[in-house]
Amino acid sequence: MAWLPFELEAIAAADIVDVGGVSIPVARAEDLVVYEAVAFRPRDQQDIERLLTLHGTNIDLARVRRIIDEFAQAMEEPERLAAFDRIVVAVLGLGG
What is the pLDDT of residues 24-45, one digit of tens each? Predict the structure, then answer.
């Protein structure tokens, strides 16, 4: 189920993975990063670190930052983007 435009986009772009002959849609790593950044509990921040470690070179960081910024503004927590950027720098050594 999807409610927001981002969620509809994430569902539409899901990768299809074959598991024992059954095709299962799986969210792209960059969409998972966004979901984790919206929740942003300590566990979610660790999950972001893991996702960036495993998939960082395949993640569109500009898109992820734009979406996180939109959610952060809507939640009135603009500092969330800076916190995400700190994780990116720590894991990938890149600016956000």
Answer: 999 999 999 999 999 999 999 9
